[in-house]
Each structure stands twice: as structure tokens, then as C-alpha cells.
Amino acid sequence: MLLTRLARVSQEVAATSARSRKIALLAELFRDAEADDVPLVIPYLAGRLPQGRLGIGWKVLSRPVTPAAEPTLTVREVDARLTGLGKVSGTGSQAERARLVGELMGAATADEQRFLFGLITGEVRQGALDAVAVEGLAAATETPPADVRRAVMLAGSLQPVARALLADGPTALDRFRLTVGRPVLPMLAHTASSVAEAVAKLGACAAEEKLDGIRVQVHRDGDTVRIYTRTLDDITDRLPELTSAALELRGDRFILDGEVIAFDAAGRPRSFQEIAGRVGSRVDVATAAEQVPVSPVFFDALSVGDRDLLDLPFTERHTELARLVPEPMRVRRTLVSGPDDVRAAEDFLAETLKRGHEGVVVKALDAAYSAGRRGASWLKVKPVHTLDLVVLAVEWGHGRRTGKLSNLHLGARTADGSFAMLGKTFKGMTDAMLGWQTERLQRLAVEDDGWVVTVRPELVVEIAYDGLQRSTRYPAGVTLRFARVVRYREDKGPEEADTIETLLAAHPEVRP
DNA sequence: TTCCGACAGTGGGGTCGCAAT
DNA sequence: ATTGCGACCCCACTATCGGAA
Questions:
Q1: What does the pLDDT look like over A237-262, one tens digit per residue?
Q2: What is the spatial distance between Cα A88 and Cα A84, in angstroms, rounded to a whole number?
Q3: Are the C-beta atoms of A476 and A418 separated by less than 8 Å?
Q4: Which residues of A in 164-193 have their CB below 7 Å from strand B's atoms?
Q5: Which nucleotides of B are covered by protein (CB under 7 A)?
Q6: What confidence tens digit (pLDDT) does each residue in A310-319 have?
Q7: A62 CB inside 7 Å of strand B
Q8: Is A299 annotated as a binding residue?
Q9: Which of the residues A144, A151, A208, A387 has the least number of beta carbons within 10 Å of its own beta carbon?
């Protein structure tokens, strides 16, 4: 199949907003693909590369290359060239990679160049990624979408499922079973604004500590242990303590879900930054492990022995977990019978925060373990802080925000009356706010370099954030974690904005 | 008819590792 | 040694479609 066909369909998919139409367009293309093209066509139109990461980014791809006049590239040729690209490594490799990218782009028409750019940077912007491609695949093969989604969860990605389904038909899905040693997509939590809201939605539930570390899925089969991240990367070699911990447990065959965290000398949880640095260290693991030893805290069991627990209610999975994992390695929790029992959950949240953790996750007791779309049966609740800050500058948006001023630069007052930048945010704005701020901020503009518009520091905005973290980038030595806009405060002048001093005083545990 | 779950999009900061300077 | 870039950790929120209630 020619690449130009994919590029054209991708444009058509992007042009329609109806999900049903997107699915129909994808299904039609999948049906037309030859057997050998299928393993490429499906991930390409799901916005993914079968090779995974290539080491090529926005910078290299942005160099202009004269496009080809006629479309000649086939999907298989593109795949072969990208595979070659991924294999280039060593000294001088960056120049060689750039040369190969230039060759590929030079063989592509302008439309194809646009498609390849989106594919490699992961920004296809056609309004259809994995989930819609799964629906398209289900339609093309006349298989129930729920069955395809479940197989994708068990396989960890779309490609193997697509290949099996198109080669052998719907019965091939039976091959995708939970297997120790093969990671599955983890179940994720939604957000609730309060414990009361979460309990009202879920009924009988458990409130568990929410730990601010790195999610891990631990597989043990006899003496073999493998550890996977949320995106299913294998990080076994970076966390030797976890292998030891898994080998100490009584069972010799299981899959557990948990979080890796670390404690300081006083027994308080260390910051996310410290844990992420430790888990990210690959070169000298021994030294990193000495400086920041980590501990696992497990909260779910996906399989034990030869039993697949995924479809069991949480209560039963937890019974299995408790049988296998002793107390300190198991997450602290409390049971809540229902809305009349909210106080128990609220007290538990207060205790958890006092112990230095992030918040709680409220989990329905009757829910199965599912990465699919079986509703939000895990709800996280975290405290939210707010500040009044001053807009110092704003960046022009991309994609659907093209032509709108989007990403705000936020400043707090300093002792001398000037403003210190604390970070940026593009979150929390409605389309109406986006339109309003585009007009309002242009009136305050003192400079526009085509990317950043610098403004007079006069407009006050209320910002919500999850906490403070250390920063080497910003002048105060700190930055906001997960900042988002709540509302504009036109009733306030910049002289009423919050100061760096009050911010630091509110977070004594963080020192710049 | 209204409500709500699922999805995609729009990017945020930090850290590590590697190649180039 | 320092800098720039890419990969991967953590993530919030809004708009929209389409099925459920």
C-alpha cells in the first residue's frame, strides 16, 4: 500500500468530528490492506510507530526538505527506512540520522511529509488514536469491540492483537491470556474533588493511601522477577531491592500492582523528584540504590499461582494480596461501608496527609481490574492549593489553539515589588476564556516575537496547583506542580498578588 | 430529552543519558 | 565540562461524541 493513501485517510479522519465516521474510515482502510501491510497500517493510523522510539524529534524533523512531486513511497519502504534509522547509534550518529531523515522526507510529497512528521513526533492530530483504531479494527474484522479492547489490555499494545486478528480471525483473541512475565496495561484512577463525592459515586469502598512515587507491575515466576512501569517498560535492572522483596514473598508465582517510594532517615516519604531520579538512574545503579533505597508498596494482585484474578471483585483480589504480602509492603487502607460512613474516609485522608503522602485513592469493592472503559471505579482525592499570580507573558497556541494566546507565564511578587516567574500553564481554560485572554493580553503586549508575547504585569489570575517543587530553571528556585487556571481576578491589582515569601511559608518542607 | 463515560488534545516540570560542542 | 535533545516519569483539564438513563 502506498503511504499517500494513509496520509489521505488520516486527513479525512481529521476533517470529520464524528467518531462513528472516523471508525468507518479506518475500518475501510484496514479491510483493504494486504496481509503484509496490516501490521504497519494499523499502528500508523493509530498514531504509533511499531519501532517505538527512534531518537528523532521535533528539532531534526523541522529542517525543511524539498518534497517529492509524485507519491512513490510504500508503507513497507517507510517501515524499512525507519527501522534502519533506529539502528544507527554511536559517534557521528546524529548527523547520520539527520541525513537518513532528510532522505526519507525528500522521497515524500508535502502531504506525506506532514503525515510522517506527526507520526514520528507522536502528534498526528487526527482525533483518533489507539481507542478509535481498536473500534476500527473490531469493525473491519467483525469482532466485538470489548473483546478486542480486552486483548489489547492483556497484550499491552495494539499491534500483536491486530496481527493475530487479521491472520486468524476472532478466535485468535483466545491466545491473549494473562501470563506471568508478560505485562498488562495498568488500571488508572480518575479524579474526585472530595472524599464525600468519591464515596457517593462508589458506595461500599476502600480508601487507600496515594503514594507519590513510580507505578510498578511486579511479575515473579519461580526465581525470575521482572518489573515494569506504567508504560510497560522493563526496569528490573534498576531496582534490585524490588527483586529481593519479590523473592521474599511466600508465593513463587504472581503478578502484583504497586508503587515504588522511598523514605528519609526520619521515616517520612521522600519527594517525587528524588524517587524519579533514583528510578531513572541506569548507569551506576549500585550507588543510586545506596543513596536512595526504595521500597515497594503493593495494592493489588492480578494473578496468584495459576489463577487469573482480573475479573474478580476487588475485595477478593485484596484477600489474595493480603495472603501473599505482609503488612509493611501492603498499602495502608480503611474500609468504608457507604455514604453514611464518609467520616471514616475523611479521617483516613487527614491521617495520610499528616504522614506526608499525596492523598487517597477510593476504590469500589465490587469492581474488576480493568484498563478498559469499565467506568471509573478508582477515584483519587488530593488537596488543592490556590494562589493569585500575575501574567508576565503568554505563548501562541498550537493545533486547535492556533491563533489563540494559550500558555501563560506566571509570576509571584518579590520583596522589591518586581515579579519572579514560577512556571507556566495552559490548563483549565475554557474556549471562552481562551478567546477573552487572547484579546485582553494583546492589549497589554509590549513585545511579540511570534512565539512569546511579553505583557505589562497587570493581569491577576487565580491558579490551582498540587504542590511546590525545587527548580533550577526559575529564579526563586521553586516551581508549581500541575498549575492550572481557576479564573481571572480582574477585581485585584498586581500589587495584591501573592508573594514568593508567603508561597515558601506555605510549603516549609520545600527549600529552594 | 438529558446526562455522563470515554477520548483526544494541549501542553506543564524534572531527571537521566547520550552526542555534540 | 557544558549544552541541547529525546525519552519517560509524574500529571489536569476541557470539548466533543454517542450511548445510557
A1: 999 999 999 999 999 999 999 999 99
A2: 7
A3: no
A4: none
A5: 5-20
A6: 999 999 999 9
A7: no
A8: yes
A9: A144
